Amino acid sequence: MSTEDATALDEVAEGESVKAKTVERGNKVLVTPLYGVKGEQPMCYHVSIDGCNILLDCGWNDQFDVDLLAPLAAIAPTIDAVLISHPDTAHLGALPYAFGKLGMNCKVYATLPVHKMGQMYMYDHFLTRQDQCDFQETFSLDDVDTAFAAFVPVKFMQLSMLRGKGEGITVTAYAAGHTLGGAVWKIGKDAEDVVYAVDYNVRKERHLNGTAFDAIHRPALLITDACNVGRAVPNKATRDAQLTEAILSSVRKNGNVLIPIDPAGRVLELILLLEEKWAQRQLGSYQIILLTNVAYNTIDFAKSHLEWMGEGVTTAFERKRENPFDTKFLTLCHSMEELKALPAGPKVVLASFGSLEAGPARHLFAEWADNASNLVILTGQPEPGSLSEEVLQMSTKASAKKVKMELAHRVPLEGDELAEFEKSRKTSTSAKTESVKDEQMLEVEDEVADIKPVEQEAEPMDVLFGVTTVGETQDADLRRRACLTEGFTPISTPYGPMFADEVWEPTMTDYGEEISMEKFHEASQSVIGAISIEPVREVPMIEQDQAESVQELEDEIQEVPTKLVSENREVNIRATILSVDFEGRADGKSVRTLITQTSPRRIVLVHGSITDTKALKTQLAASLPGIDIDTPSAGETVECTSASATYKIRLSDALVQKAKLRDMAGYKVGWINGIVGKALEEGGAPMLLPLSALNSNNGDGMALTSVTRDALVKKSSTQPGSVFLGDLRLSDLRQVLSQEGVPAEFAEGVLVCANGRVTVRKDGDEKLVVEGALSNEYFDIRNILYAQYQIL
């Protein structure tokens, strides 16, 4: 509905009850970066859409600095949904802490690979840190499970509806490249979209396709990162050759190669590269090792989720049944002990973590760094303040290179420490056992005290159930009557019998034959030999419960007692330090091109240094004149509400039935010509009625006055000819024509078809123009062109 029509309607309806539900401005959108702006910090951004609080990523650093999460702690309980773009620590590392300590309780939306591989990340973090410090105070495995139980796995281009405060808001994930399952998110409400795109890659890799924003056009707001604006266009062949030659140079000198990596994500691309080069050059004598706590799980997951990978991987599997992750040279290790147990010889070890803040990579660096034959390869931008950043800076110095670091690990208790621990454990076990016994005795006494005394005489209830109490003990009688008259007695353990004192020992079968245990015994001996049958001692329920509880306590404390041992070490860096860009992110030129093609109405730049942020803002201001570009600081709120008005209207059933709607980009599109009637309820949206309602006062129960009718007749119009819906590029048309057997080639920006008899070009208004002599070829090409559009 046009603004002119809406204005006329308001003028006509003044003084009447016909009121349109008008929002003078669009959806109220507020963007607040919590952290991760004007720097290389992890990412976390708060977006509020009409009161619905959405968190874009929830990252943390490898130091697990709790102070960094202070802005998140202030709003965590109010978050209604979280969107996760990638499975690494910088995008989801704070989720276990937020769910376990900050009171976050909401749905988390991510693709299936991000969900599963992100869980592997956090498991590896906990197991590694717990081995080096008391990490339970930060978060536990239960916190990890709680956080990832809230995940809602989605597929690419799957439309998901939010609930509660998010009613009417949809979220859709699009492939981002960079990591397996990495997503660009589109948040939609009414006719406006908010797009969140960080850490994406436009180039095809061994196991991933590049991203494309084809389904995203002119969003109301684009939130994107600026950290890649200075990145040069990568040369894949040169990079791979440099990496391979550096590794071979080290191992041929009997040296070892350490590649610090994260446990899931970019490591998959590295594994495929090494497997490919080892197979090409027949380097099986040099061992490739993946050393993480979740090494097996990472490879197993990659094997079973090929459908999320690039076309090369899926095509090879469909045609040849080749799975690229059925590795031939890779050895999986889960601890330093397993690594040391491998045969001697040069090794290429991919170990966690990439920041060198913890894990086996930190220990291997301390052990191998002082050997000039060894090589350390850093495959990405080091995390600020991490050991990897310090090592990279030290490598550029010509003077002596030394780095101080602390190493910690757990060792079993021995001697007096072990004896003291055993003594305290026995004391604690005895105290807990006595406590369990006391609690169970009190429970039994309470149960017996609640049973009212009864007479020995049989009552009607006894007769009804055919049960007599003569000759039984009073306790048994009381318990039986409690079951029959007051319900079942609660059982303290899951293994107790339903009727604790009922003993069924039949002496006759249903056919009147006497039951003889000797016959069963003889039959058993004839089949399986002599069997000694020992009398079974009836164990009272209280004793059973006590034994089970004590056994549970014993099981809990059967862990090997250990203690933390730490040492400060000064490491001389004599090994070669090589930095290779293997992050798989878009270059600066691709970033500018993608944003320009998307044509957003407003841009918010996040996650990038101050220099990079200013540079990208300047470049985009030149290519997208008139567009608002915001660069907020952490904690600064930017209001991104659209200035265009939004009008809501309901379609009558009669109008929908007559409309010819076509499917396009997930929507139903069609031309509708009608008149606006009254709302069904006070304050609701007005009803759009068919033109036939002008001749009737009872059209769908929506009466129109003569004044309204006359005004709307003046404004009513017919469909202005055919409307072509779609965005067709000449390169796509050329591909379609080739499939139809029509030759087509480009010449100076014009698509020349049918050996020059027909041409297709775009004019100044980006409209397609078909020119040529009237012939069969002309009409065939025109029909093929029309078939690429939805025509209304």
In what order do the strands lie side by side in the largest sheet?
A: 7-6-5-4-3-2-23
Described by strand count, sense and barrel closure, the largest sheet is: 7 strands, mixed
pLDDT under 50 segments (min length 5)?
A: 1-24, 451-472, 480-488, 528-547, 549-558, 698-714
Oligomer: single chain
Total helix count?
24
Distance between the termini: 17 Å
**Overall pLDDT score:** 80
Overall morphology? globular
Radius of gyration, whole Å: 36 Å
Structure class: alpha/beta
The percentage helix is 25-40%
Number of strands: 35
**Content of β-strand:** 15-25%
Protein architecture, described:
It contains 24 helices and 35 strands. The chain is α/β, with parallel strands linked by helices and about 800 residues long. β4 (about 50-55), α2 (about 70-75) and β5 (about 80-85) form a beta-alpha-beta unit. It is globular, with a radius of gyration of 36 Å. Mean pLDDT is about 80; it is low at about 1-25, about 450-470, about 480-490, about 530-545, about 550-560 and about 700-715.
